[in-house]
Each structure stands twice: as structure tokens, then as C-alpha cells.
Amino acid sequence: WGKGKGKGHRGFTPDKKVWIGGIPEGVTYKELHEHMKPAGAKWAEVFEGKGKGTGVACFASPEEAAGAIAALNGSSLGGAAIQVDVWEGKPRSAEAAAPGKTA
């Protein structure tokens, strides 16, 4: 990515991130960010490779992230309905996952 030196979703805590699925091929991080911005997104990324079709959006607070899930889950991006859900870290940090959310 190269832009924003030191930025990126790793600079945000998991409770300030949302996972996005169902992203159609060809949608860029800029389009995703524009779609998520009304909910307060500060950063968005579309994953390639194994994570193709998924992405992440980051917010200033956990409340904004939760609001984005409520407002944008099922919304249309690039002609497809996307899923917006809680960000779950790598399996080894399962104890840090949101309470009440089962894998």
C-alpha cells in the first residue's frame, strides 16, 4: 500500500474495526472508504489473495464501529450486498473477541 506511512488497520484496536465481506471484484479501497465514510470510517482496506472479497474499515471509537455494523450490514456496494460484522482477530487471540460472539 505504501501510502500513509505507518498507518493501516493494524494501528487500530480490534473494537474500532469492522470486517466487511461480499465485496465484489474490482471494488477499490477508495470506493469502500467512500461507502463507509458516512458512518465515520477513518481507514478502509480491501484485501487481496486469500482474503479476496473481504476488507476492513476502521473507526475513531468502538461506538462508531458498532453503528457502522448496524447501518451498513446488507448495504449495496458495487452492485452486491456486503456483510459488515465485528472484527475478530486471529484465532490465537480468541479471548479478546467480542463477548457473546461465538465462532
Report on this structure:
This protein has a four-stranded antiparallel β-sheet. The longest helix is centred in the middle third of the chain and has 11 residues, at 62-72. Strand 4 (76-77) and strand 5 (80-81) form a beta hairpin. The radius of gyration is 13 Å and the shape is globular. 18% of the residues lie in helices and 21% in strands. The chain is built from two helices and six strands, in the order E-H-E-E-H-E-E-E. With 103 residues, it is an alpha+beta fold.
Keywords:
103 residues; alpha+beta; 18% helix; 2 helices; two-stranded antiparallel ribbon; four-stranded antiparallel beta sheet; 6 strands; globular; single chain
Spans of at least 5 consecutive residues whose pLDDT stays below 50 are 1-5, 91-103
The computed structural class is alpha+beta
**How many strand elements?**
6
Number of helices: 2
How would you concisely characterize the structure shown here?
It contains two helices and six strands, in the order E-H-E-E-H-E-E-E.
Secondary structure elements and their pairing?
Elements: E1 17-21, H1 29-36, E2 43-46, E3 54-58, H2 62-72, E4 76-77, E5 80-81, E6 83-86
